[in-house]
């Protein structure tokens, strides 16, 4: 995934070593288990795996295989953590300091496009636990302090606003449907890019073109860090507001490079990763089956 920029990417995210699903108000939420341990990692070290896994979820959702998509979502979260929708969605940043949230229209988290910060944060705290998120407010309801009871405070390791303490806490939760919707949307964009040049009619091409144009991640920020030693090259440290935005970036880099490592199998249509730039099939079985079909088609043409 780092392609020609090997060593020029640095970022981080947190996951827990165990997650569970809880049903609340007829909705299913994913949240860290009560006694789970927090783990810090660099998503770009696993970029190809992350992309393939999220695209496979989207493919299952698009095919309406809900049971399999739910299974793959839990596998994804166990490996990489939740998406960080709380910090991804707002149009404004440092939301605790501003005390009010502005959201894009048509989002799945809230029917409102603007609401108080504390009300917004509560949407991600549906799963009751011993761990508490404390919001101290003044008489006007503005948040003066936000803190989380945690065995390790991730904010002690990073330079991020207070709301990230919630995202990286065991009290945090995300709705299963939010992840399904994101994965399906990303997969449809992937499918559109992969099949764009193969579209035979103007209508299909227009659909693909619309899907591609709707992919429009924002708020990508980075800074340049110099190495500790004089011989070290400077690196870009990406300041992603969420794992979701990191995935958007991975996807954009993958789809716009000549060294594309995540592709769509030409036979079965599944996303797969390969360092072989000429690879067209996800497995030897798919390659062999495709060759059989080509041979049969060729024989039929000769008979005619």
Structural features, described:
The chain is an alpha+beta fold and 304 residues long. It has one domain. 38% of the residues lie in helices and 18% in strands. The protein has ten helices and 14 strands. The chain has a three-stranded mixed β-sheet, with no helix packed on it. Strand 13 and strand 14 form a beta hairpin. Helix 1 packs across helix 7 and helix 7 crosses helix 8. The longest helix has 20 residues. It starts with 8 loop residues before the first strand and ends with a helix.
Number of helices: 10
Strand order of the biggest β-sheet: 1-12-11
Oligomer: single chain
What proportion strand?
A: 15-25%
Name a few traits of the molecule:
about 300 residues; 14 strands; 10 helices; alpha+beta; three-stranded antiparallel β-sheet
Quickly describe the structure:
Helix content is 38%, strand content 18%. The protein contains 10 helices and 14 strands.
Summarize the topology.
Elements: E1 9-10, E2 13-16, E3 19-24, E4 27-32, E5 38-41, H1 47-62, H2 66-80, H3 85-88, H4 95-98, E6 100-102, E7 114-116, H5 117-122, E8 133-137, E9 143-148, H6 163-167, E10 174-175, H7 176-195, H8 202-214, E11 222-225, E12 235-238, H9 243-255, E13 262-264, E14 271-273, H10 284-303
Parallel strand pairs: 1-12
Antiparallel strand pairs: 2-5, 3-4, 4-10, 6-7, 8-9, 11-12, 13-14
């Amino acid at each position: 995934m780092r392609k020609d920029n090997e060593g020029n990417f640095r970022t981080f995210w947190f996951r827990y070593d165990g997650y569970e699903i809880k049903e609340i108000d007829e909705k299913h939420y994913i949240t860290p288990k009560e006694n789970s341990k927090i783990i810090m990692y660099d998503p770009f070290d696993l970029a190809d795996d992350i992309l393939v896994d999220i695209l496979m979820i989207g493919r299952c959702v698009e095919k309406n295989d809900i049971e399999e998509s739910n299974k793959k979502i839990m596998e994804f979260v166990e490996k990489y953590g939740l998406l960080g929708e709380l910090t991804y969605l707002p149009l404004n940043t440092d939301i605790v300091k501003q005390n009010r949230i502005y959201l894009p229209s048509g989002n799945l988290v809230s029917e409102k496009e603007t609401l108080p910060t504390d009300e917004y944060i509560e949407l991600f705290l549906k799963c009751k636990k011993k761990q508490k998120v404390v919001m101290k407010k003044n008489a006007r309801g503005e948040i003066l302090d936000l803190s989380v009871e945690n065995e390790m405070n991730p904010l002690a390791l990073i330079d991020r606003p207070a709301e990230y303490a919630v995202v990286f806490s065991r009290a945090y939760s995300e709705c299963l449907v939010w992840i399904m919707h994101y994965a399906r949307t990303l997969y449809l964009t992937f499918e559109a890019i992969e099949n764009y040049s193969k579209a035979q009619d103007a209508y299909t091409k227009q659909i693909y073109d619309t899907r591609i144009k709707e992919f429009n991640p924002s708020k990508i920020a980075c800074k340049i860090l110099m190495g500790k030693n004089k011989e070290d090259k400077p690196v870009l440290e990406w300041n992603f507001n969420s794992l979701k935005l990191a995935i958007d970036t991975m996807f954009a880099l993958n789809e716009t490079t000549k060294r594309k490592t995540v592709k769509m199998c030409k036979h079965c249509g599944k996303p797969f990763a390969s360092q072989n730039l000429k690879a067209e099939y996800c497995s030897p079985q798919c390659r062999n089956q495709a060759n059989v079909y080509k041979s049969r088609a060729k024989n039929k043409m000769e008979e005619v």
